[in-house]
Amino acid sequence: MTCRILLYSKVGNTLKVGEELAWELGAQLHEIEVPDCEDGFRARLRQRISALLSKEPQVYTSDQPWGKSDLLILGTPACAGRAALPLRQWLATRPALPDRVALLITSEEASCPSSVVEDLTRLIGRNPVAVMYASTTELPTGAWKSRLSQFLDLCVVRYRQSA
Ligand SMILES: Cc1cc2nc3c(=O)[nH]c(=O)nc-3n(C[C@H](O)[C@H](O)[C@H](O)COP(=O)(O)O)c2cc1C
């Protein structure tokens, strides 16, 4: 089973959970990079102008056969009730996706924000096979791992059923 994880993580929370999932599933982990991390007024102005002129998404990912994965896990923090912009920008490029897509979401809320799941479900055009959720309060204690085996079962059982 070829499993890939593609995630965006600004501060590192989603990356931390993604690394655990990669370990458990033997998956390849890839990050969406936002290239221009310069700060300040001039840098922000330059980014906005280049975004307006090129209309290209300002994100980079490694070139992988995403659509040929048996399972693709897309990871994002909640941002203003949606998936993070870099992941939405990547999905806007209409990459080939496999039938089985699972989600990894982190946020400050006690339970998984349904608006983020709905946002991603619409953007990927299919129901996710499973959703892994970790809140920021659960991360230091690792309490989110109590849901890990259920998530892995859903990923693997559904793979076995359709293989
Ligand atoms: C700009 C911004 C917007 C956010 N919006 C939300 C939100 O709408 N709901 C929520 O529960 N958490 C929100 N958060 C908190 C992040 O989702 C949370 O800290 C997440 O774990 C960060 O993941 P990361 O370390 O992978 O970037 C927001 C954080 C930032 C910086």
Automatic annotation (TrEMBL):
- Sorted alphabetically, which InterPro entries does this protein's record hold? Flavoprotein-like_sf (IPR029039)
Origin superkingdom? Bacteria
Q: Name it.
A: Flavodoxin family protein
